[in-house]
Each structure stands twice: as structure tokens, then as C-alpha cells.
Write a structure and sequence with these properties.
The protein is mostly helical. It has 2 domains: 56 residues, 3-Layer(aba) Sandwich (D-Maltodextrin-Binding Protein, domain 2), CATH 3.40.190; 73 residues, no CATH class. The chain starts with a helix and ends in a 6-residue tail after the last helix.
């Protein structure tokens, strides 16, 4: 955010909730969003803004070391599923632009790999380098 406001970078992808204070204060301008959000209900989607086939999605995930025993992973997933059923927690998440969801470890792994392929392809296409 600091680099965008200082003119060091031209664009930023971030969580709508994290950007809202800067946008509302006029220090940043929101251009498009990947999916409808209670945080920025007026923003068009990337597709509506003319960027076809680009549907990035911010997600949060619960991770554990690869060697975590399966019963521990199942217990963590069960606790997460139970928490996500709480009406107040769901309402708070939705108000912040987060759509609660629970995926199996296999589905989540597929999602991570798909995002690595998406963003890795974008980075390679513009010859991006990490500083």
C-alpha cells in the first residue's frame, strides 16, 4: 500500500477490507474487484471492466506442516467447520468481504496449485523478478 501511494508501483491486488481505509480517504482509487463485496458494492468485476477470463480470488487458509498426522488435520478441519457455522462469525466475515467456505485438504491443495500456476504464469509473462 505504501509503495502504491508513493508512486513506486502502479497497481496493487489486496484484500478489500485492508484497502478500504485508503480508498475511502482518497489516497487510492479502487478500479475493479474479483467478486461482489460488501466492502465495495459499487465496484465492477474485472470482467465487467473489460478484463475477460481473469477471476483472481483472495482466500485465507488454515495450514499445518506436511508431516501433521491425519487425525490432527481432521480435528482441525472439524473445528474450522464448526466455527464457520456460527451465524455471528459468518455475518462478520461477509461484512468484511470474506465469503466463508470449507474445503477438504485435497480441494485446498488443488486451489493452492491452481493459484501458483495463475500468478506464476502472470509473473513469467511480464518477466517479473522478486527484489
Amino acid at each position: 500500500q505504501t509503495d502504491l501511494m508513493a508512486g513506486q508501483i502502479q497497481a496493487l491486488f489486496d484484500n478489500p477490507t485492508a484497502l478500504a481505509p485508503q480508498v475511502r480517504a482518497g489516497r487510492m482509487r479502487a478500479l475493479a474487484i474479483s467478486q461482489p463485496s460488501a466492502v465495495f458494492p459499487e465496484l465492477p468485476s474485472f470482467e465487467a471492466a473489460g478484463i475477460k477470463d481473469f477471476k483472481p480470488e483472495l482466500w485465507y487458509g488454515l495450514m499445518a506442516p506436511a508431516a501433521t498426522p491425519k487425525p490432527v488435520v481432521e480435528r482441525l478441519r472439524s473445528a474450522l467447520d464448526k466455527a464457520l457455522q456460527d451465524r455471528n462469525l459468518r455475518a462478520d466475515m461477509m461484512a468484511k468481504g470474506v465469503s466463508p467456505a470449507s474445503w477438504s485438504p485435497e480441494q485446498f491443495g488443488q486451489r493452492v496449485r491452481a493459484d501458483i500456476a495463475l500468478w506464476g504464469g502472470i509473473a513469467r509473462s511480464v518477466n517479473a523478478k522478486a527484489d
